[in-house]
Amino acid sequence: KLINEKYPKFLDRPRIQLLQLIRDFVNNKIKEIDKVLLNLLRQAAGGDWSQNNIRLIEFFIQIATETKDWIYSKQELIPYFVYSFLRLAKDHYTTHSRLAVIACEMCKERWLDCVVIGRDLARLIQELQPLIPEVDQLWTIILENPKVLSPNWLGLQELLFFPTQKQFLSQRLTPDMEAYLIFMMSKVKPINQKWYQNWWATKWFASDIRSRSLVSDLIRFICCCFHPTNQMLNADLVKRWTIILWLLKINTQISPSDVYSLFFDWFFFNPKAENIMLIEPAILLMVNCFRDLPEITNHLEDFLIKQYIGKSESYLSFGSCESFYRNLIKQAIHSSLKLIIEKRVITSISVLCSAPTLDLQTRNKFKQHFGSLFPTDPIVHLTPQNQIPISKPGIQQFPQVQMINRRLPEQPKPVQKLVNTIYTVPQQGSQLTSPVLSPISSPISSPLIAKLPTIISSNETEQTNIRLSSEQKQNTEKELNSPISNLSVNMADELREFINLAKQGNSKAQQHLRRLL
């Protein structure tokens, strides 16, 4: 509690005194001081170039150098030190390359204690490989002579197909960061999202442009550590993909490291052993941005295609084993998309190869490489007036994921409550939610349908409130004896066509209405 809650508020002098006290405790091997070290290690944040953070990093370098034997005696400390040191070395490799050197030494001497981290260990090593010679040497050993590290280790394939443990990813966020991030995804409604994002950016991103390197840590935490429950998915809460979208847009240009962090689990995904929530944010981000932010979808789609065909520069270079691991990545990406389609994470994946807002060449490549996954999936030609339909309910194997911020209620409302509801028309381009009646004998006679010309002809940029009179309420109650279903109505042109047919007395009006419903 002292470390997690009070340490960030300490002034410089108390901080220095506390670090000296902890160093003395470690030297004297005080019981359970290792737990204090782990909590203090979380305070050494990535993307922070402040003097206090630099002092804390130097403190841990000194601890790892002076008490190496004691750390080895505490087996649970080794993977945390290795992962944190490699991540911090990514930011401070020019001034504190000793971080990576210590981490490489621990890997070579206690490799089996380090592989429990999971596949993100390989990601960090590969990111540092071009920058630090000791890391490049370690990567070469992993690829070409893994038995040197441990006779019982099978090789890099075993590491890549082992998911990263949550505790190591959360270790790279301070307790405050983790608490506020979880709060945004579990308590905040979309209408308030922008305010909380601005507050977050002011607190952690405003001090130094270099702090944006923290984005990759946040994305990995969101994808791997926070998996919303069914109740959260059905609630009107901020979705994971919207937070990731904001993080990607923080930089003036999308960082390749951030995109790689988003898709990293796709490259080694095992559908039989891993949770689909690892890969869900990326596909929802691509599908939900194709209309308003096509440059985001184009960038992500192009990145995925290049990784699939193995013709792009990647953080992961496999040397003489390149073709073998590229085939594994290709199979994993194919399996990921196949599982997404089977579990109905999105209603239609064909928008990624048919939406006119996307780059034509990218769409054609996507259809060429992944078209076989959805041969029966109808091509949806989307216009600015159309939206992606909501995923069908009833999938029990995987918690249903909503594609838009608002999720419609699963249970019908009582008739009396429905009649007293105020129906509103949102701004243009947003979702129109209204009750739709079950079979109606005369379409134009319904008081709700009769109001449609007024709704549609009104200014779509303003909200229009419609209250039903007492006589209309009584007529509506008679028509609402059958179950009511909520439907997202977004096709104003088709509604106008139906109304024109009904006014003309055309016999096709009722048939058109039933097909529309």
Question: Can you walk me through this structure?
Answer:
Helices cover 54% and strands 2% of the residues. It has a two-stranded antiparallel ribbon. The chain has helices at 2-6, 12-27, 33-42, 51-66, 68-73, 77-92, 98-109, 111-114, 120-128, 133-144, 156-160, 166-170, 175-186, 193-205, 215-224, 230-234, 240-250, 256-263, 280-289, 294-309, 322-342, 360-370, 415-419, 447-450, 452-457, 470-479, 492-503, 508-516, and strands spanning 432-436, 485-489. The chain is mainly α. Mean pLDDT is 78; it is low at 376-470 and 476-490. Helix 6 (77-92) packs antiparallel against helix 7 and helix 20 (294-309) crosses helix 21.
**pLDDT under 50 segments (min length 5)?**
376-470, 476-490
Number of helical regions? 28
The radius of gyration over CA amounts to 28 Å
Q: What's the number of extended β-strand segments?
A: 2
> Percent of residues in helical segments?
40-55%
| End-to-end distance | 57 Å
Sketch the topology as an H/E string, one letter per element. HHHHHHHHHHHHHHHHHHHHHHHEHHHEHH
The main pleated sheet reads as:
2 strands, antiparallel
Classification by helices and strands: mainly alpha
Strand order of the largest sheet: 1-2
Mean pLDDT: 78
User: Strand portion, in percent?
Assistant: under 5%
| Overall form | globular
Gist of the model:
The chain is mainly alpha-helical.
Please render the helix and strand layout as text.
Elements: H1 2-6, H2 12-27, H3 33-42, H4 51-66, H5 68-73, H6 77-92, H7 98-109, H8 111-114, H9 120-128, H10 133-144, H11 156-160, H12 166-170, H13 175-186, H14 193-205, H15 215-224, H16 230-234, H17 240-250, H18 256-263, H19 280-289, H20 294-309, H21 322-342, H22 360-370, H23 415-419, E1 432-436, H24 447-450, H25 452-457, H26 470-479, E2 485-489, H27 492-503, H28 508-516
Antiparallel strand pairs: 1-2
Helix pairs in contact: 2-4, 3-6, 6-7, 6-9, 9-10, 15-17, 15-18, 17-19, 19-20, 20-21, 20-22, 27-28
